[in-house]
Amino acid sequence: MAPRGVDTVVRATVDPAVGALLSFGLAGPPSELLGDLAHRLLPVTDRDAAELVRAIRAAPMLFGWRGASPVDTGALEELLLRLGRLLDDHPEVASAELEPVVVAPHGVTVLAAAVRVAPPPPRTDLGPRRLPAY
C-alpha cells in the first residue's frame, strides 16, 4: 500500500525542435483542468529541480498548506534529476510519464510509469548537451 501524501505527475519528453523537456505538476485537476504545470529544458541541475517543484501555483500543498504535513520535496527533486539524467544518458527514450507519484512526508512512491522508446531523432548540434562548469 502506498503511503499517504500528495499525488503528483512527472513527465519527460523529447521534442525535435526544442530538445528534451521535463515537466512537473500535481496530479488530477490542477494539471489537467488548470494547466498548472512547470517545465524545464534538460539537462537540469539541483537548483533547476528545486525551482521546478516551486514553480507551480499549487506548490503550497507540498509545503504544509493549511496545517498539513509537509512532504519530502528533496526526494521529489532527486526523482526529477534522475528522470532528466535517464533521458540525457539514453537518447532512445522518447518520453516517460510517471503518474501518480505519491510524495509522502518521507520519500516518494511511483505508482504508474510509461516509457516510450524510439530511434533517437537526428541531432543538429555537434556536441553533447551539457551545462558549462563554473
How would you summarize this macromolecular structure in one to three sentences?
With 134 residues, this protein is of the alpha+beta class. It contains three helices and six strands, in the order E-E-H-E-H-H-E-E-E.
Describe this structure in words.
- The chain has 134 residues and is an alpha+beta fold.
- Helices cover 23% and strands 31% of the residues.
- Strands 1, 2, 3, 4, 5 and 6 form a six-stranded antiparallel beta sheet that branches.
- A hairpin with a 3-residue loop joins strand 1 (6-15) and strand 2.
- The radius of gyration is 15 Å and the shape is globular.
- The mean pLDDT is 89.
Number of E-state strands: 6
Oligomer: single chain
CA(first)-CA(last) distance:
44 Å
Number of helices: 3
Helix content range of the residues, please? 10-25%
Structural class: alpha+beta
- From the alpha carbons, calculate the radius of gyration and give it in angstroms: 15 Å
Spatial shape = globular
